[in-house]
Amino acid sequence: MIAVKTGVLRVVDYDVVVIGSGLAGLVAAAAAAAAGARVGVVAESFGGLAMWSGLVSGEVPAGDEELDAVRFFVEFGVRCGLEYGGCGGGRGEEGEAARKGMEVLSVSGRPVRCLLAPETAWAGDLRNWASSGTEADDGGLLVVGFTELEDYPAAVIAGQAAAETGARTAHRTVSLGRAAGRGLGVRIAGLFDDPAWFEGFLETSCRVLGREARRFRAVALPPVLGLFRFRSNLEALRGSLGTAVFELPAVPPSVPGMRFWRLWRWRLEADGRTSFHLGRRVIEADTDGDRCLAVSDGLTAYRAAAFVLATGGVAGRGLEVPPEAFFRLSEPTGALRPEQARGDGGSARTEEGAAPVEPIFGLETCGRRTDWLSWGVRVDDFWRPCPAGGPVNVFVAGWQLGGPEPDALLSITSGWRAGKAAADCREEGTL
Ligand SMILES: Cc1cc2nc3c(=O)[nH]c(=O)nc-3n(C[C@H](O)[C@H](O)[C@H](O)COP(=O)(O)OP(=O)(O)OC[C@H]3O[C@@H](n4cnc5c(N)ncnc54)[C@H](O)[C@@H]3O)c2cc1C
Predict the structure, then answer these.
(1) What are the residue ranges in the chain where pLDDT is below 70?
(2) Cβ-based burial of 319 (10 A; exposed 0-12, middle 13-18, buried ≥19)
(3) Taking the CA of residue 300 as centre, how many other CA atoms within 13 Å lie in the half-sphere pointing to its CB?
(4) Cβ proximity of 311 and 400 under 8 Å
(5) Which atom of ligand 1 is nearest to the CA of 24?
(6) Looking at ligand 1, which residue's alpha carbon is closest to its atom 26?
(7) Domain ranges of the chain
(8) What ligand 1 atom has the least distance to the C-alpha of 283?
(9) Neighbours of 155 (CB within 10 A)
(10) 91 touches 83 (CB < 8 A)
C-alpha cells in the first residue's frame, strides 16, 4: 500500500492517470490510450465543456506537431461520431482556404473566426450563405428561433447578421409546444433525441417554414438538435426544408459541449483502455523524490507511471485563489514585483501568498495579476512543472498552462502532447 496522507480504502493501477475531463483531459486520455497505455481519468465534472461555444478558436497551427495534434483530434472525432473540421487538419480539406478555418455567426449575429467547428455548424460558414454578389445568386440566411428558448433571439441575430455581412436575412420564431417547458437547451435537446417527438416537429417545421426556407441558402437553428441524434435530425431537416441547415454556436449550458463530452467518453470506454472515475476530486499526491507515485481523492489512490494535470486553471478549479491572494493581487499598488506589474506573462515569481495555488502538488504558478485566466502552472520546455525538483512524470495540459489567451486549440495541442509524453514514460520506465 502506498503512503498517501489520508487513509485510502483502495488502490487502482494504471499506466497513465489523467486528472480532469475537460477538453484537455479527454484529448490527453485519447492520445495516451492510442499510444497503448491503460488510462484512468479522475475528474470532478466536465469542466468548461459545459459552457463551450463548440468552436475551436486559436492561432492557425504553425508547427508540424501542432498540426499532428489537430489531425488526431479530427480523426478521433470521426470515431466518436462527432466530426470536427475547418482547418488544415480537417477531413478532405486542403489548401490555404482550409487552413484559415471558418467564419461562422456567433449568437450575437457577428461573424467569428474559428479553426475547427463541429459538423453541425459547417453549413454556417459565411462562404456558404453570404451573398456571392451576383444577380443570380443573392445567398441569404433564415434564422429560426424557438419561443421556449430565449437565449437565441432570431430577430436580433438576423438583423445583426445582415448589418455585419450585407447578406439578405430573415427570421422566424416557432414554438416547440408544451413538452419543451421553458428555457433549458439541454432539456430541449432531449426532445430532439425522441424520434416520435421529432417526427412531429419535422412535420410542423416543414409546414410553417418549408416554402420560405427554400428561398434561402441556409437556415440557422439554436444548437439543441439532440445530444445523440443530431446528425440524422440535421439530415432530415435539410431534406424537408430543401436547403442547408446548421446550428449556431452555443451559449451556456452548452449542448455541443455535452455532446462532445459524452461521445468522447463513450468512445474511450468502448475502446477498452480507459476508465473514468467521475465526481472525484483529487486532493493530494504521493511523491518519492522527483516522481509522483499516486494521486488520491481521499478514498481511492490512483497509481501510475505518469500523470497528466489537466485541471483547467482558475476557471476549472485547478488553481485556487485564496482570499489573501485575491486581495493582494487586486491592490492598485500591487503585491508583485515590478517586472510582473508590466504583465510579462509571469516569468517572475510572486511574493509569498500573492498567487493562485495549485492544490494537488503545490506547484509554482504564474500569471498576469487579476487576469485570472492567464494564470497557470509554470512549466519547462517539456510541459513539466518547474522549477526543477518538482515531479518529472507529471505533464501539464490545457488551461492549467495559463497564458495570455488560453483557448480550445491550446487544450487540444497540449492535451495530445501530454498524453503521448505520459504514455512514453510507461515504456521508458524512467525519465
Ligand atoms: C464560457 C466559455 C466559452 C468558451 N468558448 C470557447 C470558444 O469559443 N472557442 C475556444 O476555442 N474555446 C472556448 N472555450 C474554452 C474551451 O471550451 C475549454 O473550456 C478550455 O479549452 C479549457 O479546457 P481544460 O480541459 O483545460 O479545462 P476545463 O474544461 O476547465 O477542465 C478542467 C477539468 O479538471 C477537473 N478538475 C479540476 N480540479 C480537479 C481536481 N482537484 N480533481 C479532479 N478533477 C479536477 C474539472 O472537473 C474538469 O473536469 C470556452 C470556455 C468557456 C468556459
Answers:
(1) 1-6, 87-100, 131-138, 183, 328-353, 388-389, 427-431
(2) buried
(3) 17
(4) yes
(5) 25
(6) 398
(7) 10-51+258-428, 102-248
(8) 41
(9) 14
(10) yes
Q: Is the dihedral of CA 216, 220, 225, 230 positive or negative?
A: positive
Q: How many CA atoms lie within 13 A of 85 on its CB side?
A: 18
Rounded to the nearest whole angstrom, what is the distance from the C-alpha of residue 331 to the centroid of ligand 1? 28
Each residue of 356-369: pLDDT tens digit? 999 999 999 998 87
Q: Which of 344, 280, 326, 318 is nearest to 400 (CA)?
A: 318
pLDDT given for residue 70 in this prediction: 93
Which amino acid makes up residue 307?
F
User: pLDDT by residue (tens digit) across 225-273?
Assistant: 999 999 999 999 999 999 999 999 999 999 999 999 999 999 999 999 9
User: What single-letter DSSP state applies at residue 173?
Assistant: E
We find that the CATH architecture of domain 10-51+258-428 is 3-Layer(bba) Sandwich (3.50)
Q: Which residue has the cell 508540424?
A: 64
At residue 246, the pLDDT reads 96
Strands 218-221 and 141-146: parallel
Burial of 113: CB neighbours in 10 Å, binned 0-12, 13-18, 19+: middle
Distance 411 CA to ligand 1 centre (A): 8
Residue ranges of alpha helices (H) inside 168-249 are 185-192, 195-213, 230-241
> What nine digits make up the cell of 415?
492535451
| Count of Cβ atoms closer than 10 Å to residue 286 Cβ | 17
How far apart CA 329 and CA 321 sit, in angstroms, is 10
CB 141 within 8 A of CB 167: yes
CA of 313 to the centre of ligand 1 (A): 8
Residue 132 is predicted with a pLDDT of: 55
Q: How far is residue 412's CA from residue 409's CA, in Å, rounded to a whole number?
A: 5
pTM score, whole prediction: 0.92
Nearest alpha carbon to residue 20 among 31, 29, 11: 29
Output the ligand 1 site: residues, CB below 6 A.
19-25, 42-49, 51-53, 55-58, 252, 281-282, 310-312, 315-318, 360, 398-400, 407-408, 411
The pLDDT score that the predictor gives to residue 343 is: 42
Distance CA 138, CA 146 (A): 26
